Amino acid sequence: MKPDLSATYLREEEMYPEVAQWLRSFLSQRAHGAQLYVWDTPRKKLNQLIHRLPKSYRTLLPNHWVSWEVQVDVVGFAISGKQVKIALVECKLKSLTLTHLSQLIGYVSVVKPEWAFLLSPEGAHSGLRHLLIDYKREDVLAYTDLAGKRTRRILVAKWMRQSQGIDWHTAIPQGVDTLRHLPPAKRER
Predict the structure, then answer these.
(1) On the CB side of 177, how many CA atoms lie within 13 Å of its CA?
(2) What is the pLDDT of residues 54-93, one digit of tens each?
(3) Are 111 and 75 within 8 A, CB to CB?
(4) Distance between CA atoms of residues 150 and 183, nearest Å
(5) Cβ-count burial of 73 within 10 angstroms (0-12 exposed, 13-18 middle, 19+ buried)?
(6) 178: how many CB neighbours lie within 10 A of its CB?
(7) Which residues of 79-110 are buried (b: 16+ CB within 10 A; e: fewer)?
(8) Long-range Cβ pairs for the range 1-9 (8 Å, 24+)
(9) DSSP secondary structure string for all residues of the chain
(10) CA-to-CA distance for 185 and 173, rounded, in angstroms?
(11) pLDDT in tens, 20-56
């Protein structure tokens, strides 16, 4: 039975399969021809999930992946040639707060993914929006990629159940120039 997409989620876990499907599509658009692995397994630690990857792919990750004892709601891997790109997604039912962001900041500091998303059907709480936009503290979203060469940014946004995707108008930060890996969106505030 298909979920009633007009209804709100009763439990956070209901979001995971839908977000995982979106992430698979997102990765396929940005990593053409890559082998994709996307899982929604919030109860498993990331280092345990990596054991599901073929051994030849695991060797492409930094050796310290065995210490990645973080539990991410949705994780994706795009593997092409000798390159592994990782995507992490944290989902929340309530408005996104600094506490939620801090959790993901910890994860990206350890894993250094190519993409990181913090999503909620309610979007960002006013306090978080004030910090990031009004007080111009989008710097807290920044981290370096796995190679330590490029600055990446966590994307905070509203998840739209009906359209099964991100509401790009609510995305923080805005614009492709700072995120090169995300589509453009106009700021509407």
Answers:
(1) 1
(2) 999 999 999 999 999 999 999 999 999 999 999 999 999 9
(3) no
(4) 18
(5) buried
(6) 14
(7) beeeebbbbbbbbbbebbbeebbebbbebbee
(8) 5/161, 5/162, 5/164, 6/161, 6/162, 7/161, 8/121, 8/161, 9/93, 9/121, 9/161
(9) ----TTSPPSSGGGHHHHHHHHHHHHHHHHSTT-EEEEE--TTS-HHHHHTTS-HHHHTTS-GGGGG-----SEEEEEEETTEEEEEEEEE-SSPB-HHHHHHHHHHHHHH--SEEEEEETT-B-HHHHIIIIIT--GGGGEEE-TTS-SEEEEEEEEEETTTTEEEEEEEES--HHHHSSS-------
(10) 10
(11) 999 999 999 999 999 999 999 889 999 999 999 999 9
- Residue 135's identity, in one-letter code, is Y
Count, residues in the chain: 189
Q: And the tokens for 114?
A: 């190519």
